[in-house]
Amino acid sequence: MSERNDSWLVTGAGGMLGRDLVTVLGADPARRFTAATRAELDLTDPEAVRAAVTGHDVVINAAAWTAVDAAETHEDEATAVNGAGVENLAHACALVGARLLHVSTDYVFPGDADRPYPEDAPTAPVNAYGRSKLVGEQAVSRLLPETGYVVRTAWLYGTHGRNFVNTMLRLAAEREHLTVVDDQLGQPTWSYALASRLVELGDAARSGRAPAGSYHGTASGQTTWFGLARAVFALSGLDPDRVRPTTSADYPLPAARPAYSVLGHDRWRSAGLAPMPDWHEMLGRALASRGLVATT
After folding, report:
1. Residues assigned a catalytic role
2. pTM of the predicted model, to two decimals?
């Protein structure tokens, strides 16, 4: 029997998504997995990556350079992790016959669409972070055409680490009113729900039910950052009118943000899986899991 049978590796296991992946995988006592944090595995070290991948059947890459604005002045460093590091993973997976599930981003698209981007839509990043992530996607597609999976996500939030929902909850306790951008559309996605979906996709890949390629791991529906902030307040029993709208022009950032980050989900049917739930329902579940949803 292969030593790789049902053995999983999670990279970036100390991050928001990585910690949720460890929780989901650990809920099944029969499932064997290794959790590697950034400190434990440097994706830019090819030999270390090969050693880490050896003995595993499925690799989920949740490791990334995620400092979007910093990437504008450190694009080489971002690409070393998000591009060359992913290429190292793909090479190692090809060598040992492991399947790779690589987490990517909506930022590979230009954000100028007026309908959800399908999985095969042309890519055209508008910032350095998106360009670095596209390099990683291309490496997976080139080196693992039959066993590589790119799962793009967006507007990710969760219990752990810095994210928009946690920031809104913190600021709600510090300020009477908040001003939030209302001219960017996207799909707020709970990291725990994405972790569960990634494990489902890994199981489908191992059983031959899920074809390799790109999938979109985002919630259904759409809203703006302003709409998300109001929903966080309302679901938490706070007055949503404390949140006021503004425009992106009032909050300029080093890295351009796509104005439209809504992704389509048609590809999940090929894996026998339904699209992820609506963003508002997902947010309610996420806040309830933390005891933060107001009861009536």
Report:
1. 129
2. 0.95
